[in-house]
Amino acid sequence: MNLRNEARGRACMGRYPGVCNFDTSTTVLAHLRLAGITGGAQKAPDQLGAWLCSASHDETDRRTRKLESDFVKTMFYEAIFRTQYELIKEGAIK
Questions:
Q1: Angle at CA 50, nearest 5°, toward 74 and 64?
Q2: pTM of the predicted model as reported, rounded to 2 decimal places
Q3: HEC profile of 42-79
Q4: pLDDT at residue 42 above 90?
Q5: Residue 68's CB: how many other CB atoms inside 10 A?
Q6: DSSP strand E in 1-94: where?
Q7: CA distances, 91 to each of 71, 78, 86, 88 (Å)
Q8: Which of 21, 52, 69, 79 gets the highest tally of CB atoms within 10 A of its CB?
Q9: What residues are labeled active site?
Q10: Gap between the Cα atoms of 21 and 52, Å rounded
Q11: What phi and psi, each to the nearest 5 degrees, are found at residue 87?
Q12: What is the longest distance spanned by two Cα atoms in the chain?
């Protein structure tokens, strides 16, 4: 299963207050960036991604900076867990 394609039309799992645009047409699989897992041109595995709307993705990647960095990091980790939970319920990942 292509987890990137699975993001299309999904609700944003970021739920960033004052940031999320709730537009499912902009949802993509946003990838974790973390030393030891990613670096250079290396992306994290799709299983370590979250469904985010375009506004939440911009905030996560720090293209916008409306929220404090550590708060965004925590919210993104929670979004990964929510995304994984949905995929587990659907049988897409175990």
A1: 65
A2: 0.92
A3: ECCCHHHEEEECHHHHHHHCCCCCCCCHHHHHHHHHHH
A4: no
A5: 9
A6: 28-31, 49-52
A7: 30, 20, 9, 5
A8: 52
A9: 31
A10: 10
A11: -65, -35
A12: 35
> What's residue 43's pLDDT?
86
DSSP, collapsed to helix, strand or coil, labels residue 57 as helix
Contact 10, 32 (CB under 8 A): no
**Angstrom distance (rounded) from CA 18 to CA 84:** 24
The alpha carbon of residue 39 and the mean position of all alpha carbons in its chain are separated, in whole angstroms, by 18
Segment 71-85, tens digit of pLDDT: 999 999 999 999 999
Over residues 61-79, mean pLDDT: 97
Residue keyed to tokens 């980790």 = 77
Q: Do 53 and 21 touch, CB atoms closer than 8 A? A: yes
24 contacts: CB under 8 Å, gap ≥ 6: 9, 10, 11, 12, 53
